[in-house]
Amino acid sequence: MAGLVVKSLSSPEEVRPFKDGMGKLELVDLASGGVGRATFQPGWRWSEHVKPIAGTDSCLASHVGYVISGQMTIRMDDGEQVTLGPGDYMRCPPGHDAWIVGDEPCVVIDWQGFVDYAKG
């Protein structure tokens, strides 16, 4: 059995900036997988600020996350849409766009989809 492992998103092992300074992704890697904290600035939209990095028509990452602050709307490729806010937990399959709602940055912790997210 492995020993206790402690890592902090306050000292990430990797930082990936989004296009045009619209936010960043901070990552730590655990044996069980990566964990990321993304900060999305007001005006951020996946199709404008990550699509050029990902090179796909929509986000193909599957996310399991928790919203700490701010609001984000997610629209699935099939048209289903939801707005998330502080305290919301979500599971989001591949095939979506997302954008920030309002004037506050949105901070999301993700246990699944950020390992390859915004990676050029």
UniProtKB/TrEMBL annotation:
SUPFAM superfamilies: RmlC-like cupins. It comes from the Bacteria. Gene3D superfamilies: Jelly Rolls (2.60.120.10). InterPro entries: Cupin_2, RmlC-like_jellyroll, RmlC_Cupin_sf. Pfam families: Cupin_2. Residues 63-110 form the Cupin type-2 domain. This is Cupin domain-containing protein.
